[in-house]
Amino acid sequence: MSFNLSEWALKNRTLVLYAMILLGAMGAISYANLGQSEDPPFTFKLMTINTLWPGASAEEVSRQITDRVEKKLMETGDFERITSYSRPGQSLVMFMARDEMRSKDITDLWYQVRKKIGDIRHTLPQDARGPFFNDEFGTTFGNIYALTGEGFDYAIMKDYADRLQLALQRVDDVGKVELVGLQDEKIWVEIANTKLASLGIPLVTVQQALQSQNAVADAGFFETPSSRVRLRVSGEFTSVEDIRNFPIQVENRTLRLGDIANVYRGFSDPPQPRMRFMGENAIGIAVSMKDGGDILKLGENLDQTFATLQESLPIGMELRKVSDQPAAVEAGVGEFVQVLMEALAIVLLVSFFSLGWRTGLVVAFSIPLVLAMTFASMKYFDIGLHKISLGALVLALGLMVDDAIIAVEMMAIKMEQGFSRIKAAGFAWTSTAFPMLTGTLITAAGFLPIATAESSTGEYTRSIFQVVTIALLASWVTAVVFVPYLGEKLLPSLARRDASGDVHDPYQKPFYRRFRGWVEWCVRYRKTVIGLTVGIFVFSLLLFSFVPQQFFPASGRLELMVDMKLEEGASLTATQEKALRLEVMLGENDMIENYVGYMGSGSPRFYLSLDQKLPAASVAQFVVLTRNVKEREQVRGWLMEILEREFPAVRTRVSRLENGPPVGYPIQLRVSGEHISQVRELARRVAVKVRDNEHTANVHLDWEEPSKVVRLIVDQDRARTLGITTSDLSTALQASLSGVAVSQYREDNELINVEVRGDSHERHALGLLGNLAVQTENGRSVPLNQVATLESGFEEGIIWHRDRLPTVTVLADVKDGALPATLMQQIMPTLSQVQADLPPGYLLQVGGTVEESARGQKSVNAGMPLFILVVITLLMLQLRSFPLSLMVFITAPLGLIGVTFFLLLFQKPFGFVAMLGTIALAGMIMRNAVILVDQIGQDMDQGLTAWDAIIESTVRRFRPIALTSLTAVLAMIPLSRSVFFGPMAVAIMGGLIVATALTLLFLPALYAAWFRVKEEHAEIGRASCRERV
């Protein structure tokens, strides 16, 4: 190529200096304005369709609502899975969009789902309410506050919580603010059923009177010649006392409602899902960040507002932090910055020691330039700082100096041989610029399968590809434009001459002579070298089966999740009783910083990868915060011990927070089929086999126990004679037991339901149900047991479906540090008999961590053909030879030798992130191979024989290849401590060490064997080549 960019840079030094200053300033400004968050942007491709049908059993809901909704949803074709549960009176269908759907297409899909369900609304039962849609699952409430106040009731606390919500909504960078654990206010009118019967007052009369009295009705207006005068009729309730004094007309008597009923102001009973903080009732205030915001700035803004808001609260009421994501992010970013600084120090030390002080300075000054260009590009492409991009920056740091080292090393060598600075820079451009560019692009292509992975795991890790590719391209620009300028300014006069005045040949030093001898031996005994390499490679493949497998490691966050699940159908009162007992124990442990309990539901999503619990009366969840990882593990062990000892009848679980997409229980096996009883029987057999494995714990089915039910067998003939319908019976029972809303009390901007129900004794005495007075159409009352027979029994409390089939899932945790993938390999062979006994149409499928890992692996594998195509195209463009391109390509898998040995040596699992590192490693290996093979070709063009070209090129490329690999490997050492990126760093370290040795010793032997090179020397050509090179 006639145009020489490096020479141009040295001839236009002022422009280059200006570009360096400008890029440095842009990089600094961009870094200061990059959005910071804990996790990368992530789309939850989940929508729920919730339909209520009061009074229906789970089986009726399943058949009449859930099945119809599922059937219609399947017509979209864009689903990964459709799961649902049917409970008495409720259907909840969860539509999970296809993994490969892009985030921008999800909004349109949600519109299609709403439209399709709207099309079948008329086919659902007439008295069904809904469907209601929810597609906002991705909101992460990183900051959660608890408003507590001993002696204050929920009404007063809610009033202050509303004010706090409004104040927080005005803070910069705040997205949503939601209140958690609210209890709706009610005005209860409790009337004893027996009293009504004795007075001959129909309950309907009371209900209708209250309803009509407090209704808002238009009384009209007078249209006068000058104005319009509206009429307002008094009588609406303005206080609870008004309701007590409300007159009820019965026959010829007038009674005050307060004389026959207990009227009082209270809250939901049974309570709604509630929140407790450190043993006190609380209202949670959950704050999320706007898209693209900076979580650290949000944290500062919230802290300032927090102090002001605390002062505005009355004495005794406190606003306390429950979850503080900015603090967690600050600690995480601080840790990564420390790792980045350590890696930077290592890179600089390697440069100074191997290249010398002034030559090393050239590399040192190139690093801020590459980082500046990287930060500016990250800002332009809207890539924020989070755990994935920060890890990618550390990963890129070891690679981004490679081009600078190669360029400055070549320039220094040429100057040693007597070249001028401009000529040395020009030679570096002509000999290495394009092999370097090809190598850089091949290294970036190694991360290409991450970019094309169409899955939730691919979306989560995509910024690894983006950041590394940006950094590598920036490093090449730096190497060919800025390094020549820096070299011209910083490199000393390196030309060395002997006594006769001839230029000293740097490649005749004792070390290079020894290394030349090793390479020559490898080329001469090429078959032995190739045979040994292939043998070691096959051996490493066999050893790889012993490497532990993992999806994503646990998070380093200090919270523990404690789940409690009572039997299906348990009351919220029973759940609260168990949760309060555990609360007392948590309060006595000094290692716990704070704890928050959610009863009747799970925690809001305060962390992206949280596996959220669906609301249910039988569920409670605690979030326990500890001070450090060591204490977290101690508290975890203590919790597991006391839960097993103190709560044997409750299904409990203590788990750390996860990394990556939420999975839940690590071991999951699903049994699906047409008949629930048969599916459950098969699932129990699977559970037995899972329980037999000594490394599993907490093995159970996700739905098993039935719920209690009392069936009323109505004598229809007698009921008709008395003028009682089934609907009348249901209404009477509901009014006496649960309560019926008959009106709304309006207070300021609040609407408070006025509900009529039986007194406490009637509501809780199941044995007296038969004596409940049922009123006939003429106002008389008869006991319930005169028109109906009461039968106690059981029914399904919940029915789970997956893709329209009843599905029972066997769930289990792992213990003793075992890994789910390893356990599944042990468990699956034991299930062969169960699989053989599956009736046609029945399925036994693996779920949990293994399924998610396989899905992520599949999405990455789908990008491999593109990776191979791009790499071979780049090789062909650079080498312009099929045999050479193929030879370089087959060196790529050899890094697996080092990967296997290092993962086994350091006992690191091979997970999704390590797999990405292994694929990227192939690009790094081929980069070195390209540079070496291209050098051999250049030497042969200079007149060397193939034999001499192989040996001399390998000797000359030894230092840049060894230095770049050493830099990359040593820069990984700080990253290897990371829980998330550690396995990837270890894999790259091991693979690169072995691959470098193979590039310098195996590749020459392979080249010689590939092209059948014979030992021939051309001394004249060799000498002339040395003069040039």
Offer a few descriptive terms:
30 strands, alpha+beta, single chain, 1029 residues
What report would you give on this structure?
With 1029 residues, this protein is α+β, with helices and mostly antiparallel strands. 53% of the residues lie in helices and 18% in strands. It contains 35 helices and 30 strands. The strands form seven sheets. Strands 1, 2, 3, 4, 20, 21, 28, 29 and 30 form a nine-stranded antiparallel sheet that branches. Strand 13 and strand 14 form a beta hairpin. The longest helix has 35 residues. The C terminus is likely disordered.
Low-confidence blocks of residues: 1020-1029
What coarse outline follows from CA principal-axis ratios? elongated
Which percent bin holds the helix content? Answer: 40-55%
Given the helix and strand composition, which structural class is it?
alpha+beta
**Could you tell me how far the N terminus lies from the C terminus, measured between alpha carbons in angstroms?**
19 Å
Look at the structure and give the mean pLDDT.
Answer: 84
* Radius of gyration, in angstroms, nearest whole number: 37 Å
Strand tally, please?
30
Instruction: Name the quaternary structure.
Output: single chain
Strand content: 15-25%
Largest sheet: 9 strands, antiparallel
Total number of helices = 35
